[in-house]
Structure formats: C-alpha cells, structure tokens
Amino acid sequence: MSPVKTILLIAAATALCAFERRPSLIDEARILPSEHAAIDYWNAQPADPVARLQQKIDSGKAKLGYDPRFGYLPAVLDALNVPVSSQVLVFSKTSFQAVRIFPRVPRALYHNDTISVGYVRSGDVVEVASLDPKLGVVFYTLSQVESAEPRFEARTTECISCHAGPATLGVPGLFVRSVRPDRSGVPDRAPGFITDHRSPMKERWGGWYVSGEHGEQPHLGNAIYARGGVESSLLGSARTNVRDLAPYITDIDYLSGGSDIVSLLVLEHQTRMVNLIVRLGYETRMALAATPSASTLDDLPEPARTSIRNAAEETLRYMLFTDEAPLNEPVTGASRFAAEFQERGKKDKRGRSLHQLDLKTRLLRYPCSYLIESEAFRALPSVAREYVFGRLWEVLTGLDTSPVFASLSKADRTAIREILVETHSGLPASYTGRKR
Fold it and tell me: Which of 54, 154, 295, 325 is 20 to 30 A (C-alpha) from 306?
C-alpha cells in the first residue's frame, strides 16, 4: 500500500473516532460470577471505607452526630470525606426509595472519587455505595432513627439486581441513567441512556436537576415529559443555564440549593471507570485462581490472556478519554464543587494534577483518569496492573501512535507522564528509568 493511501486510511479512522463511539473490547452484557471463590462477594469481609468507618464506630474511635433536620446525613458525609458541594438531584423514580421521590422531592446524591451517598427527604435510611478494593461496589443503608450505636447494614441483595448487569459491565458497580420522566417522576417506557464521558450532552440528565452554565448545548434535565415526548420545564420559563434552583429546590430541604453540572460530569466519568477497574480485577483474579502456578500474563491459557488484555485495553482507552464527547462550549458549575474537587489532587512541582479540570472543551485539563490513584486500581493483581502500566507507558511516550489514541496530543502525553512520575507512588520503578 502506498504511503499516501496509508495516511488517508489513518486520517479516516481518526475522523471516525472523533464522531462515533468505538465498539467495546469486552462483552458488557456478560455478567461475571461474583460468587466465584476468587471474589466471594457475598461472604467476604468488605474492606471499603464504610466497613472501616463501622469498625471505628464499634471500637469507640468514631461517632456519628445526629442532625434534627437531616438525620445522620451530614455526619456520614463528614466521616467519609464526601463534599456537600457535590450534591446532585435526581427526581426520576429509579431508586428503591421510589415511592418517596417526585419532581419536587428529588433524591440527593453526594460523592467523592469512590463513594456515593444517597438521601431522600423523610426517607428511612441514608444510602451508601462504597468501592471495595477487591469486591467492587458494596451497598449499605444507615437507619435515620437516632441510635446510640448507629450501624451501616449491607443492602447487597436489593441493590445488586440493578447494579450488577449490563449497565455496570457485569460486576457490582454504578451507573448514571438518563430517562424521560412524567410529572410524577415515572420514566417513560422508551429506552433511556446510560451516560458517561462518552455521551453527548443532548442524551444526558433526563430525570435530573442541573444547575450551572453550559451555553447553547442542550440536555434533557430540569424537565418532565408528557405523552409523545413533549417536554415541560420544572423551572418556569427557564430550563437550561440555571445557576439557582430556588425557589424550586432550597437548602431548607437539602444541604445545598443546587445540582451542580460539574459534579454531574465528574460522577458520570467515575461510574464507568470504577466498573472497568472492577471488571479487570474480576477477570484477572478468576483466571489466576484457575491457574495457580501463573505469575505472568503469558503463563495463563490463551482465552484467559485474551479476556484480561481486552479488559485492560478497554480500561486504558477509557482512562485516557479516547472517546470523550467534546464540550462545544465552556461549562461553569453553580457551587464550590469544581474548586474543592481540584484541591483533592496530588500536585507535581509545577502545581499540576490529574484532578485539574478543563471545562472548556473537555472534562479534565490532563486527560488521564485520577482513579488511577484509587485504592481499587492499586489493588489490582500485579498481572493486570503491570499490563496497564506497560501499555500506558507506550502511549505516553509515543511508542504507540495508533489512531485510537490520536486525541492525545504530544503535550498531553508528556504532561500526564510527568505528573504520574511525581505523584503516583505505585508506579513501576522502570517509569523513571526507561528511555524514550
């Protein structure tokens, strides 16, 4: 093939990647066996942040204060380091507390990088989903009845029916759903969307309140839908670019009066990234259990190697935002969430971090998921973790110039590599010693 034809084919493939989502490298409808001995989701003792907090409560090293208006919610957020500014509000009836959720009485969600907390006004419980390094997402509820000995109760059976299927890549995980709800919050029977950073904004946030500015970019939030898909704003004459949701949603009923658009963008990215990390861990642990003598990927049978490689490659592609839907106009939040989110990041000597936001044309200033720093990623079996780091090195140093990573500029690759070398304590030693 001539050099000219080769260049044209590469250009065409790159253009396709810019406008169409690539097919997944994994069978996302395949549900992995969480009961497998290598995982033992149902019997193993969790080691996630909520389990650790409960141990502190039991030993008297931690206490949860009770608020007369919000019950244990403020204390739970504080104890788990979940910022109030992360509040987002969902009014579609897509929760096990659906009977208490309505467009004027939405469910509040709060999150940090690996924990989500749910609150419903007058609800019986506070809901918590917490990422365990090995098991995946573990689900809990905490009774809103004041007690001298508050206890997080595992709620796995009820939650797992929705949170371990195709929407979560077949493992215990999380997802953000966009639907068209009617005036009571019941979703239309028409298929909705499972959204993440690859989703165009026009598909996002059906059934959610959205506060903040985003220019002329349309979304499905702040609206209910009559028969035939006719929308009606929940915010009077306004529906988009709303900075203040009052008087419809106020901090009298919730911890804040907004549903921050930047928090929504971050939450959507995190859900699929968490699920991919969990999926890669499951695939690898099950394969190693079947071949106990294996110490490297090459020691495993070919089917197992293929499954792990595909899961790792899908994780790497999403981690590097290769199919991110671009922001066509800048986005501005309506709370302190963006500032507080960026403050969490580990910074290199130039003040850069993977938590830095862009919000002009894309989510992150440096397109590499900060969840590479998470406990769950660090806890991946070495076979999987080393494969991802090896491939990441090839991409960041320009050894891999395939079209799939064409969205990463040379400056992006260099900056991400430099940030990782200075801030990530779990990198292979070879990262600082290899030559380009």
Answer: 325
Query: How many angstroms separate the CA atoms of 223 and 185, rounded?
Result: 10
Locus of tokens 């106009």: 329
Nearest to 141 by CA among 154, 131, 132, 130: 154
Query: Distance between CA 392 and CA 368 in Å, rounded?
Result: 10
Q: State CA 244 to chain mean position distance.
A: 25
Greater confidence (272 vs 160) lies with 272
Tokens coding 211: 């506060």
Nearby residues of 189 by Cβ (< 8 Å), 6 or more positions away = none
pLDDT tens by residue, 189-223: 777 999 999 999 999 999 999 999 999 999 999 99
Mapping DSSP to helix (H, G, I), strand (E, B) and coil, where does residue 292 land? coil
Spatial contact of 39 and 134, defined as CB atoms under 8 Å apart: yes
Enter the tokens of residue 201. 């904004």
What does the pLDDT read at residue 251?
78
The string of DSSP codes covering 379-436 is TS-HHHHHHHHHHHHHHHTTS---GGGTTS-HHHHHHHHHHHHHH-TTS-GGGGT---
Tell me the CA distances in angstroms from 54 to 47, 57, 150, 219, 264, one per residue in order: 11, 5, 9, 39, 28
According to DSSP, the β-strands at 176-178 and 152-154 are: unpaired
What is the model's pLDDT at position 160?
75
- Residues contacting 356, CB < 8 A, separation 6+: 342, 345, 364, 365, 366
Q: Are the CB atoms for 365 and 341 separated by under 8 Å?
A: no
